[in-house]
Each structure stands twice: as C-alpha cells, then as structure tokens.
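dumping this here before i forget
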Amino acid sequence: MNKMVIWFDLDGVIFDSYDVWDQVVQGILKLHGVAYTQQIKEELWRIPMEDVNAYLLQLVENSLDENELERQKMNQLQSLYRDISLMDGVHELLSTLKAKGAVMYAVTSNYLELAELGLSSHHLSNYFVKLFSSLDLFGSDKNREFYQFILHQEQIDPANIVMVEDNMNNLRIGHELGIAGVYIEHPNSPFSDENTGIVSIKQLSELIPILEDRK
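structure:
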C-alpha cells in the first residue's frame, strides 16, 4: 500500500455533518417563516454548492441580501464545525492507513475554513498531506477541472488513487479520469456501479480490506 494515494471527501465521510447543515438551513428559514420541508432538503442535496445561497434567498423571498445570508450562515457553521462529530471509526482508519504508508488527501467541496476547523478540532490535520477545496479554488462544487488541477499540481498517477466519497456524481467524474472509487452509501445519492468498478460500503471499517485487495 506504500504507493497508494487516497482522496477522502470530508462531509459525510470523515465528518458526520448532515445534521449540521440541516440545522443551519432550518434556523435561517425559520427566522423568515419558512418551513424546512423534505422537498427543500432533497433539493439542497441535489444542487451545486455554489447555488445554495441563491436557492435560500429565493425561499425567503429575498428578505435579506446575499451578504447578510452568508454572514448568518457562516457564523452558525463556524460554531458547529468547531465541535463537529466524526463518522464511526475515523481515528482508527486514518491511523491504520498512515501506518501502512498510504498518502492521504482531504478533498472537499465545503468551505476551506470549515474543513480546517473540523480537522483541527479532532487533531486530524496531520494525517493528510494536503487539503483541497473546490469551493475555495474554483468557487464551485467538485468537477473535472478541480480533479485535474490536483492531479497536475501533485503529479499523481490516477491509477494509484482511490477516491472515498458519499456522492456518486463525484465518483463518476473520478472514474472518467481513471480514479478508482469507493462509495459510502447515502440515501440521497443511490448507488449504481454502472460498470465503473465503484465499490459500495456502509461504514469506514469496510475500507481496509478493499484497499488491501488493490495491493
């Protein structure tokens, strides 16, 4: 496993953060008399990160401007990410992989500041050689350009990478670039291997045997 490179998504893979985002959005909408419905929740999962503010402003009928919305959202998120919960088995997994010589990257579509807060609050930063945020670099969700940027900057052979994600669209993009994928199952992003070789797991403890098989 010495030459294996692993790209870990953070939210939903390392951070148990689904409820955090629900809590923030629900709080903002409640202030403006808007109920946080299942339909809104599913739409927020579906749309790109860069379109979230516009969607929320539409829901509150532009009763606040984008700067104020961003301020309210970030104040709450910063507080919550300082005490973010981890998915089960994170410390054990990262410690084991580091001992085996794996080279690990944190690759997120979240705000860079929030990713850094979450990692540092649990003393996880040193497990990762680098942290990349598509929102910070390109102002967008993860896409082909973002992944190619990392490959070029880090001079990594895609054939040596395993991407661990909870979003099938991101894994499909990785597959097109020659990157193997492991999907952490999530109900809002149904699993379908589509002859891509993407592997599905329910919990992080299942990851080590999959990586061992690639040696």
